[in-house]
């Protein structure tokens, strides 16, 4: 194709609600104000409801129009796109997959942040796509790449992400328009002008904010810190004592992590303690973007059931109450409803504070007895496993037990199933691989159907 | 009020000769209608023509000045029936809808108006929702044009061509006494471009003139013997008249040189894509100066045999670029050439895809194959680009409910009730609620069309077993669901449950008002309750739930509907305002109140990462865009934690879910106070000091 062509082609990939249409309108305005003919189109419709949408623009210099009416295309042709703008990392990946990004021509401008697709975020465990593959493909397929976290820049400035993308585009030099032409378009659109100009400037700068790299942590140290806070120094000592059974460094690290989590299982006392931590209110304020000094009320959604109440009582009493059907019929209805606990209310706060203090009595509770027994059975199994690979997998199986209520019951059942299957393959060379396969299957769905299918036939 | 306001665009509808119109394709059509002296306009909203309906709704004053009647029809059938006004009177009329579904709904009236023929010009504007971004079955409207004999225009996708075709379409319709369909693809409807405007033309004859001076002609009514006469008229008079008009007015166009032994015939709507494909092979330029002869069909039905013969004579092969299937044009071209005894080989679907949108890639590949076979241009080898590793990581993004959508809690409740009572057969409908069939809800077995959810469940009549559940939107209910669904269920003694989602708008199509909308609308009559209509038609078991976010109550009502001993259809009306429209309505009010110093409270939700278990059960019961995941801040945990981003509108579903399903105690509601009163400040001061005394850690 001859390089005499005068047009500029731009594809914008955005998700419904991200302002791809606004960005497109700004670009039309910039072009039309600066002596270019602009054509733009998109396939809106159902994709506007959270799906991914492509906006496509072709710009043509007015000066060329004397030769006739330009015939502009309505969709990007592979190999013919000058600029691809993607509002999210995986959308950049999608643009590459669709052939819009080619090394001879395309400048790829993309945000590196993630908006997770429903399949990614609803996975029982981790299910997110690997963004590094997009970065690799971008470097290989684009003529030039401008990538940074535009979402963070938009948040910092209270601007729409489309304003940041416009800034990054203006700075890339791929369009023959000066910076103030873009800013004029934002001003003329009269939508949140100040914020969007700030966002535009941040996009023009085009850098990620400096973040201090996270310091590596010592897992054992963290375990000790957590269990001291959770219970007391003796409890942390018990943790260290239990870890002595594991000499292999990898097994030991994995166990240090898993054991600390299991030993800090979340009962009513623990939840109460976590809810009234001193630092928590600041975390909440930051999370909900409260302004300094602004009053914020917080209501927690809690649902302690009769079972959790019994769990908190001394083991004998708790077990008796839990086993007594008529008492359960009598009391359970009082605990059948979820509660909204207003932690910023003094009364509720004192109540949680009192519950948190009850942790001194934790060792006597029914739940402690139950969990402690399970932990010891598991510890013995890991300690008895000679193959470090299998031992690591056994340690990781702890991750199956999660949550509260039914979720916890289902997770525990899966854990028991995996341990049961392990007993049958113990000592064989494929113990580790079987454990890994089963754990992965158990995390595939909620009801354990995948795990059932993955079980070795007896 | 619709999702978008078109007040600015309405101003452009007023511009006159010498001024330039800049805007979207479908809005250019509205201007072209006014320039053509249209007397009445109707239609039913739906992508991609919703904006036409919206802009006319906003243009009420202008339309009144011009004596143009506009109505937001109850359905496409209602809109098509309105065309009856052009049968006896010289009234130019236009209707618009989403096709092919809208054309299906309208087909009864369309057949009738096409049979009797028209006096005034009739234009049926169909937005073909085909290809990328489409939400409907992939079919061609072309078949309708052929079977009812309506002429089909498919103009080149640029605003001057489209506008010109609107004006020519009315003339063609009048010259041939035949309704004309103007087909616009999605991208053409949303195309931003420009054209030189003309003055608006007030209709020479208005609907009032017609009503005041009624005339009748029984020969225009479809009843024997006139119906047999109509068929003959179509063949003997209207068809030749159309061919004459199209040829004389040169509605089809020629590009490129005259001679050559190969050429291309293309539907007008695909010309720009074809030209780009040729340009990328150095066979054309930016102005459509193709190096091959190209014959552009701006009229795709009927074909003009003389033009086809002239174009094909002397050519060994001609490529026909025709999107969709069956390939009606390709068949017809072959017939014309056979009858003319020409040996030109017509090449179409053998090099172009049989199914799917004709994208730049598809057309480019087809042209390459055609040129390799017939033009002696071997295809250049392209290096394969291995992107398999990337493809595995890039997730699908199915459409879903918006942030805070009131329909989400309904399906959460259904999912929870089905856990108790077992899976039920669920007959879905058309509308946003159809997203229930996708993750995370996975609810719904079939969808049979707009307003047909209840009818779609009507084979299931067991009164001794599980009831079937039908879901319908308020849009579908008024479109035809009241009669074909609810009335049918009453008459046939159904025992099933119908859930009507009453969110106050025709939400999926852009938030237009309908009969049961809660809003006041100065041009329409609203606030007609769905419950009243259903009771009027004979349903006795009706429960209206006016807060869909109350998952517990919703569960109770659904459970009762599925288990009650009472016979007859059960109707649950789930009422909460569409959140997209609610936010558009209330957000500016909130911002203004804050600015004016009023005490306002913003609610939003959050997740406490310390207690979040990383199991994501909450997400599987919600799917809200604002409820997502982020890396676990706990150095010991690896699973990502749930996270609510700042787009949260505080609908409360997260909390309801964690209560209803006994999830982890991680959700919290934050109430952020703007412009606090002195009481707020005093209480906050006291609280913080008391709490500081007892805080831990």
What does this structure look like?
The complex is a heterodimer of chains A (458) and B (697). Chain A has 458 residues and is an alpha/beta fold. Chain A has three domains: 8-205, Pyruvate-ferredoxin oxidoreductase, PFOR, domain III (Pyruvate-ferredoxin Oxidoreductase, domain 3); 219-365, no CATH class; 368-454, no CATH class. Chain A has 22 helices and eight strands. Chain A has helices at residues 20-33, 89-97, 118-121, 132-141, 150-157, 161-172, 179-189, 193-205, 219-230, 233-243, 249-263, 268-275, 280-287, 306-312, 315-323, 325-331, 346-357, 366-383, 388-396, 405-425, 431-442, 449-454, and strands at residues 8-15, 36-42, 52-61, 83-86, 107-111, 144-148, 295-302, 339-342. In chain A, the strands form two sheets. Chain A has a six-stranded mixed β-sheet, sandwiched between helices. In chain A, strands 7-8 form a two-stranded antiparallel sheet. In chain A, helix 2 (89-97) links the parallel strand 4 and strand 5. In chain A, helix 1 crosses helix 6 (161-172) and helix 5 (150-157) runs antiparallel to helix 8 (193-205). The termini of chain A are far apart. The mean pLDDT of chain A is 91. Chain B has 697 residues and is of the alpha/beta class. Chain B folds into four domains: 12-248, 3-Layer(aba) Sandwich (Rossmann fold); 253-374, Rossmann fold, CATH 3.40.50.920; 407-581, 3-Layer(aba) Sandwich (Rossmann fold); 599-694, Alpha-Beta Plaits. The longest helix of chain B is centred in the middle third of the chain and has 23 residues, at 226-248. The chains are: A alpha/beta (458), B alpha/beta (697). At the A-B interface, helix 1, strand 2, strand 3, helix 2 and helix 3 of A face helix 10, helix 13, helix 16, helix 17 and helix 23 of B.
